[in-house]
C-alpha cells in the first residue's frame, strides 16, 4: 500500500480507501461486510470512509464493529453529515448547528470511537448560512470529536468560501469528496485547480463507476446475477441504472486489452487511472466480497504509461462526461426530509 498526504496537512491516508456506501447494512450482510473490512486491513488499507445516512446508520455500526480491537491510532476513519437520518424529522437533515452537533455524537457512538479523523459535509446546504455550518464544524474539531474537516461535491466557489471561513476559525478544511473516474471527469476543469490552490485534496468515490469500468456489464446482455445492477432490494440498482447505456458499455469493453498490457484487471486499471491525478489523495473502493477488495487494493502504486492513458482517452471518446458546469448539482437546493 502507498500513502499520500491529505491536502495541506500532515495526515497521511492510504491511496486506496475502503468505503461502505450501498453495501454495508443493505447489499451485504454483517458477516460478509466484516470479512470485506478484514480483507481491506490485510491489504494494507488504513483509511475507511462511511456516512451516517448509509443504511440510516447501520453502515457506521457495522464498520465500527468490524474495526473493534484494531489500534485506533493506526486507522483513519471518515464519516459525513447532511442527508436525512433517524426518523427524518425537520431537523434530522442539513448542516445546521443542531444537526451537526447531534449527528457527530450519534456517529461516534455507532463507530465506537472517541473521534473521527475527518468529518465531512456530505453536500452543500443552501438553506443554512455557511457561517453557521463552519462554526459548528470548528466546534466539533475543538471538542476533539474530529481532527480535520472536509466536504463532498462542493463547487469551486463553495470551496473557496468554506476554506476561508475555516481558516478564520483556525481549523483545517483539507478535502473534497467528489465522484471521479475515467468516464466522469467534471472536477478536472475547475474543482481540481481550485483545490490545488487552496491545499485541498480529492478523496474520490466511484473510481470504477459502480462496477461499470470492470467490464462485467456487457452491451445487450442482462446484468450478472449478484451485481449491483440486480440489487433492487438494497437500492444498488437505482444508483447504477442511469449509467447502463450500451454505447458506454461498448466503449468500456475496449479497455480490456489496455488493462492486459499493463498486467492489471480492468478494475485495477480504473482505480490506477484516478490515482494518476496528483490532487487525488485516495480512491474509495468498496466490495461485496473479500476478493474484490484485494483486487482493488492491488492498484496502489501503479503508474500507467502515457500510451495507456492516451489509449483510455481514445477508447472512451465522446462518452466521457467532462462538463464542469455539472459540479454542485448533487447538492439539493432545498432541504430534504
UniProtKB/TrEMBL annotation:
SUPFAM superfamilies listed in its UniProt record: NAD(P)-linked oxidoreductase
A single GO molecular function term of this UniProt record: oxidoreductase activity
Region described as Disordered: 215-234
Coiled-coil segments: none
Transmembrane segments: none
GO biological process: methylglyoxal catabolic process
Keywords, sorted A to Z: NADP, Oxidoreductase
Protein name: Predicted oxidoreductase
Oxidoreductase found in the keyword field: yes
Organism, scientific name: Friedmanniella luteola
Domain NADP-dependent oxidoreductase residue range list: 15-315
PANTHER family named in the record: HYPERKINETIC, ISOFORM M, L-GLYCERALDEHYDE 3-PHOSPHATE REDUCTASE
CDD domains cross-referenced by the UniProt entry: Aldo_ket_red_shaker-like (cd19074)
Oxidoreductase keyword on record: yes
Family according to the record: Belongs to the shaker potassium channel beta subunit family.
Domain of life: Bacteria
GO cellular component: cytosol
Pfam family, one: Aldo_ket_red
Amino acid at each position: 500500500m502507498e500513502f499520500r498526504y491529505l491536502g495541506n496537512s500532515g495526515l497521511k491516508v492510504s491511496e486506496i480507501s475502503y468505503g461502505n456506501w450501498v453495501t454495508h447494512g443493505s447489499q451485504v450482510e454483517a458477516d460478509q461486510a466484516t470479512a470485506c473490512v478484514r480483507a481491506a486491513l490485510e491489504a494494507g488499507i488504513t483509511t475507511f470512509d462511511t456516512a451516517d445516512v448509509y443504511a440510516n446508520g447501520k453502515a457506521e455500526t457495522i464498520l465500527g464493529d468490524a474495526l473493534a480491537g484494531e489500534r485506533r491510532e493506526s486507522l483513519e476513519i471518515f464519516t459525513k453529515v447532511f442527508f436525512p437520518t433517524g426518523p427524518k424529522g425537520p431537523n434530522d437533515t442539513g448542516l445546521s448547528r443542531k444537526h451537526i452537533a447531534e449527528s457527530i455524537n450519534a456517529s461516534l457512538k455507532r463507530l465506537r470511537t472517541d473521534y473521527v479523523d475527518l468529518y465531512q459535509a456530505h453536500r452543500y446546504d443552501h438553506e443554512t448560512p455557511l457561517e453557521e455550518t463552519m462554526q459548528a464544524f470548528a466546534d466539533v474539531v475543538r471538542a476533539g470529536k474530529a481532527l480535520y474537516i472536509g466536504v463532498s461535491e462542493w463547487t469551486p466557489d463553495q470551496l473557496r468560501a468554506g476554506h476561508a471561513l475555516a481558516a478564520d476559525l483556525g481549523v483545517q478544511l483539507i478535502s473534497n469528496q467528489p465522484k471521479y473516474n475515467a468516464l466522469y471527469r467534471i472536477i478536472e476543469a475547475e474543482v481540481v485547480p481550485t483545490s490545488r490552490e487552496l491545499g485541498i485534496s480529492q478523496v474520490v468515490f466511484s473510481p470504477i463507476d459502480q462496477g461499470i469500468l470492470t467490464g462485467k456489464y456487457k452491451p445487450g446482455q442482462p446484468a450478472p446475477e449478484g451485481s449491483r445492477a440486480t440489487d433492487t432490494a438494497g437500492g444498488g440498482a437505482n444508483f447504477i441504472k442511469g449509467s447502463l447505456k450500451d454505447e458506454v458499455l461498448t466503449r468500456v469493453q475496449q479497455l480490456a486489452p489496455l488493462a492486459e498490457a499493463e498486467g492489471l484487471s480492468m478494475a485495477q486499471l480504473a482505480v490506477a487511472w484516478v490515482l494518476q491525478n496528483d490532487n487525488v489523495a485516495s480512491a474509495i473502493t468498496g466490495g461485496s466480497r473479500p476478493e474484490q477488495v484485494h483486487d482493488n487494493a492491488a492498484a496502489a502504486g501503479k503508474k500507467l504509461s502515457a500510451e495507456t492513458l492516451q489509449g483510455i482517452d481514445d477508447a472512451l471518446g465522446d462518452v466521457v462526461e467532462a462538463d464542469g458546469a455539472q459540479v454542485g448539482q448533487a447538492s439539493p437546493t432545498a432541504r430534504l426530509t
